[in-house]
């Protein structure tokens, strides 16, 4: 299976080099593409100076636009699947082969690198939101997803085509629920993740609450009108 790891990056000058170097050192068998999403820091310069494979947006389009650019690149270059991979150092590249093996063994359309297949969710405010999204996805699809907010996911070619042709279709839990209702087969593989290695997350406490509310509303209501 020919797989491209898509690494959307916005102002990740402190972490982009360690992320790419670790991915290369892990010898996962995956190619990669950094999508510099209109960064105002040195992210693009670092990619150019170190010879990384990258494309740049002139302005910041957000995760949806960054991921879509990577998917279109993958489709144009004959890839069978794409992996969504964070630029901030949270994702461990050594787990990518597990996701690929799961897709090849089960025929799943989407494989999620989940923190909670064999591990229990901790009791925290953030995990309350994750539990709520899991419950709503199960209510609307009849299927259980243990880690709906995981950003480590593998998508096969039919799923790539969905993301490439829709301007409002981001790699988020609500799109996952939509695809599941349309017959997408989803599997989860146990992984571990780290805290952000450098920089600051765009999700403050207030934005995290807003994000959870938006996702829940989308899964319950908006997705039915797509």
Describe the overall structure.
The chain is α/β, with parallel strands linked by helices. The chain has one domain: Spore Coat Polysaccharide Biosynthesis Protein SpsA, Chain A (Alpha-Beta Complex). It has eight helices and seven strands; from the N terminus they run βαβαβαβαβαβααβα. It has helices at 16-26, 43-49, 62-76, 96-106, 125-141, 157-165, 173-181, 205-220, and strands at 3-9, 31-37, 54-57, 81-84, 110-114, 153-156, 186-190. It has a seven-stranded mixed sheet, sandwiched between helices. Helix 1 (16-26) links the parallel strand 1 (3-9) and strand 2. Helix 5 (125-141) runs parallel beside helix 7 (173-181), helix 5 runs parallel beside helix 8 (205-220) and helix 7 runs parallel beside helix 8. The protein starts with a strand and ends in a 6-residue tail after the last helix. The mean pLDDT is 90.
Features:
8 helices, alpha/beta, Spore Coat Polysaccharide Biosynthesis Protein SpsA, Chain A, seven-stranded mixed beta sheet, 226 residues, Glycosyltransferase_2, Glycosyltransferase family 2 protein, Nucleotide-diphossugar_trans, Glyco_trans_2-like
């Amino acid at each position: 299976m020919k797989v491209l790891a898509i690494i959307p990056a916005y102002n990740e000058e402190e972490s982009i080099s360690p992320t790419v170097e670790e991915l290369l050192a892990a010898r996962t068998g995956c190619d990669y593409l950094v999508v510099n999403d209109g960064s105002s820091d040195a992210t693009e310069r670092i990619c150019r100076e170190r010879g990384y494979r990258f494309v740049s947006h002139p302005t910041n389009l957000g995760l949806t636009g960054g991921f879509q650019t990577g998917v279109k690149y993958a489709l144009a270059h004959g890839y069978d699947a794409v992996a969504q991979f964070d630029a901030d150092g949270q994702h461990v590249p050594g787990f990518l082969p597990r996701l690929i093996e799961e897709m090849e063994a089960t025929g799943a359309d989407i494989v999620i690198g989940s923190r909670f297949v064999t591990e229990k969710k901790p009791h925290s405010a953030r995990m309350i939101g994750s539990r709520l999204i899991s419950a709503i996805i199960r209510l609307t699809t009849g299927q259980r997803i243990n880690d709906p907010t995981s950003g480590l996911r593998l998508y096969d070619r039919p799923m790539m085509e969905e993301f490439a042709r829709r301007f409002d279709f981001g790699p988020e839990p609500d799109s996952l629920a939509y695809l599941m209702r349309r017959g997408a087969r989803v599997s989860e593989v146990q992984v571990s993740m780290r805290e952000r290695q450098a920089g600051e997350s765009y999700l403050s406490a207030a934005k995290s609450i807003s994000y959870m509310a938006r996702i829940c509303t989308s899964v319950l209501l908006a997705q039915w009108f797509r």
